Every structure is written in C-alpha cells, then in structure tokens.
Amino acid sequence: MSVYAIIFYVLGSVMVVATTLAVTRRNLMHAIVYLVLSFLASAQLFYLLGAPFLAVLEVVIYAGAIMVLFLFVIMLLNLRQPEAEPKIPFIGQKLGGIVLAGFTGLILVYGVTRTVLTSGKPMAPGLGNTETIARSLFTDYLLPFEVTSVLLLVAIVGAVVLAKSKLR
Fold first, then answer.
1. Which of 14, 42, 66, 84 is the most exposed place for a label (fewest CB within 10 A)?
2. Other C-beta atoms within 10 Å of 35: how many?
3. CB atoms within 10 A of CB 117
C-alpha cells in the first residue's frame, strides 16, 4: 500500500467522522466546527488527487464563506440550546435510521470498490485546472451560477429581515 493510499484513507476517515459528528451534535457551534473540519479534509483530498485549484476553492468558498454565512445566520436568529423535550421512545425511528445508514454504507462501499476496480486510466488532462473550470463555469453553467448568486443574496436579505422583525 502506497503512502498516498494511506493518506487518502486517513483523510477519508476524518471526513466521514467529522461529517457524522456535525450531523449528530445538538450544539450548533460544535456542529459548525466539525463541518469545517470535514471541508478541510475534503480540500486535502482534492489536493491529493491533483486538483489544487479545487482544493483552494473548497477552503475559500466552503470552509470560509459558507461557514461565515452559517455563523451569521445563527447569530442573527439568536438560536439557543433547545429546551429539554420529553423523551418518547420510538423504536421504529432508530431502526429506520440504522437500516438507512447501513444501506448508505453498502452503496458507498459498492461505489468505491467499483471505481477502484474500473479506473485504470489517468485523469483527463486539465481537469481541475483554473482555465478549464472558468471556461465551463462562464459558458455552460453561466445561468445556474447567476441564479445561485441571486438565491444566496435573497437568503441573506431574508435572514436579516427575520432577525430585525424579532427585535421589534
């Protein structure tokens, strides 16, 4: 087993554990810290796979801008810890979660093994290159790119309006 494979598996494990912790934490600040750790591990995986520009975009956009946006929304909405709810045991909910997690794990193992077994060819030249991404983004995907930017602007304005209405 090569050093790259070991690093890949370690980073993949860190990413899976951090994402799982981000989803299962009740404290929102802890969840955001785990999500940032997951994004950083994902960026390192991009770099390891030979796409340094995508790694930088992952850090700048997701670990930077999106997490700051999440923090602003949490602070603007003034979300506190949830009240202690009475626990109603529902075995079907836990069983369903375990079955779905197992099914997702099986799909993941199938996809990884299929990809590893069938990918003997090298990556396409220029994949992850700045010029290739920019050309694709501003030609083929210009409309979705602009729609996404407008949706993010509307979400920010909506969060500010909701926060201001609660202060009155």
1. 84
2. 21
3. 8
